[in-house]
Amino acid sequence: LDRVKRAYELSVSIRLKEEQRLAVLAKLKTFSEQKDLYINNLEFFYLLYPIIFKELAKLLRCVIPQFDEIPDNLKCAIFTSLIGKFNALEFYYGSQGRFKRQGLCMCSLITVFDFDNLEEWLDVEGLTRKDDMMRTFRYYCDEYMTIFSRMQRTNRITETEFHSMIAILICQLDTTLHLPDKIQRVFDDTRAQVFEELQVYYREEMGLRDYSSRLGNIMTLSAALSELHRNSEEQINLYSLLFDIRSQDQMLQQALCCKEKVTK
């Protein structure tokens, strides 16, 4: 967990600089209720994707040093099954106790998503069929925020629990992925080690004798993050089918090529 903490903090320092640069590039509006934040939009989301991808790759290698031994096609599948959960975990952790009204959540390190102002998300030049896209977007947002609000009603997690959840999500592979036995054991062993370290943290640093409720909270959150990931993945792929927006696979290619554009 100490290794994950160091890697994550380094990642945040890198991404903060990139987010500030991209906020200017995308001409984001300042969030009126907290002047240190911006209102996210679709253009910023796509511009930020390559940076998140690169930094998530570093975290993956930190948690699973043998990651580069995995075949390339499986690496892409792992990223696809992970990135939505990782993003949702960051949104949740960054939103803890931050906002006074409902319908708000962090949407990156310095941006916020406001469910009451969905039009801001699609305030991007070059999009076609905006009205149709808004109706689709509203449907998915309603579902996303229902799950997210449920998460916010659970017990807040500590920084150490947050770092442990990063590692747990990385090791919690999609059941459709079939890794070589040797690599699968690495993921399984790493996940077991994370839970062992987490229990030591509960006993020695938090002074808990019974920490079953905290472990249960983490598992509940993990399940909700999987729901949010499915929502995001389905939403992105539907946008690609119906509108002039890149698919999940195309976004992975964007990340590899670092192309800063939104439409196909």
UniProtKB/TrEMBL annotation:
Molecular function via GO: DNA-binding transcription factor activity
InterPro entries from the UniProt entry: NHR-like_dom_sf, Nucl_hrmn_rcpt_lig-bd
Entry's Gene Ontology cellular component terms: nucleus
Entry annotated with the keyword Repeat: no
Domain of life: Eukaryota
NR LBD domain span: 50-229
Record-linked Gene3D superfamilies: Retinoid X Receptor
One Pfam short name: Hormone_recep
Keywords associated with the record: Receptor, Transcription, Transcription regulation
Protein name (database record): NR LBD domain-containing protein
Organism this protein belongs to: Pristionchus fissidentatus
